[in-house]
Amino acid sequence: MKKLLFSAALVVANFAFGQLTLEHSFTEERTLTYSTPSETYYVSKTVDNKLKIYNSNYTLYKTVNVPMPANYSVLSFASDNLDYIISKNIFNTDSKFEFLIAVYNYNNNSNSYETKLLLINEDGTLLKDFNPNPASISYAEKFEIFHDSVLNVNKLVVHNESYITTINYNPIPQTDVYALPTSVLTTKEIQAGTKLSAFPIPTNKILNIVNPGNSANKVQVYDTTGKLVVDKSFSTSEHKISIDVESLPKGIYIYKVGELSSKFTKN
What we know:
Layout: H1 2-17, E1 30-35, E2 40-45, E3 50-54, E4 60-65, E5 74-77, E6 86-87, E7 98-107, E8 112-121, E9 126-129, E10 139-148, E11 153-162, E12 172-180, H2 184-192, E13 197-199, E14 206-210, E15 218-222, E16 228-233, E17 240-244, E18 251-257, E19 260-266
Antiparallel strand pairs: 1-2, 2-3, 3-4, 5-7, 6-7, 7-8, 8-9, 10-11, 11-12, 13-14, 14-17, 15-16, 15-18, 18-19
Pfam families: Por_Secre_tail
Keywords: Signal
Signal peptide: 1-18
C-alpha cells in the first residue's frame, strides 16, 4: 500500500512539474522585468555596459548606450530592493523608459570606490547625475520613491555617504529629497509599486522605515513566532520612521505598516 501511495505521489508530482515550460533564457549579466496590466518588457545589462530592452515575446526592442562618465567603468542596476529602477512615467511624460543606474570608479587616492546614481532614458540621454561631485559624496546609489499623500507630491529620496578610505571606514550620511513632477500617471505607477523599504538591513540598533504613504500611522514588528515585539505610532507626515531594535534578540523579524509588510534581520 505504501509503495502504491508513493508511486501515486510521484505521478502527481511529475504531472505538476510537467506544466513548467522554459520559454527563454537571457545570456546577459542580469535581467529585470517591467510589467503593467497592459505591457511586459525585459531589461538586460550587458558586460559592455549597455542595456537591452526586450518585448514580451523576447524580441529586441532597443539597445541603450549608457552615457558612462569619464573614468567610470562599471555599470550596475541601482539600489537593493530593485523598485523603480525601471519606470516610464515617474520622471517624464513622454512614455519613454527611464532607468536609475549606478556606475563605479575606483579612486586610488582615497583607496575607495566612488559611486554615481544616474537617471537616463531609453535614448541613452543623461537626465540627472545625482552625484556630480564625488570628492564630497563618494557613494550615491540607494534610493526610494514614494507618493506623499499629505502634500500630493511624488518624491525621490537618495541616500548618500562620504568616506575617506575603505580601511578607515567612517561614513558621513547625507539624505537628499527631490520633488518629482506630479501627474496622474506618475502617482498611479508609484502607488501600484508601493512596497516597504527600510535601512540599514541588517541592523543592530536602529531600523529606519520609509513611510509608504498609505495613510497608516503605526508600525508593528513581529518575531518569527508571530509575537508582537514593537508597536510604535507615528505621524503620517513623517517621511522616515526610526525604531529602536537594539534590545531585540538576533534573528529575522517582520515589520508592518498598515497592510504592507516586509522583513529585516537584527544582528
